[in-house]
Amino acid sequence: MIVEVGEKLHVMYRSLYEKSTRRHFIGEVKAVDRSLCRIEGYVFVYDDKSTEFIKKAEKRITIIDVAESGFIVNVIDSAVVLENVRYKYAPNVGLIATDNNNFTLNINEFGSKS
């Protein structure tokens, strides 16, 4: 299998058109069937007014085909506490996801900085 139950993933949804809502998801894989994954975690949605990603408070379950070209999928450390992950801008890096502990993921989608 390409992904195992218990792994944690950070998923970026590719924009289909210019004004598409920018969505990201971070969660733990609960079930796998080939490349389909049932993942429980949190959604981050880009807010045009504040120009930042906002984390939705409630946990969600989503099903994602990690082999589909519409997603950019990163496997993250299993020790990451998903509830603590936030987005922020880091000097000389750009946008990152972090738990303010040991986990940091540069999530600049299509450039060196965002």
Automatic annotation (TrEMBL):
Query: What domain of life does the UniProt record list for this protein's source?
Result: Bacteria
The name under which this protein is listed is: Uncharacterized protein
Q: What species is given as this protein's source? A: Saccharophagus degradans (strain 2-40 / ATCC 43961 / DSM 17024)
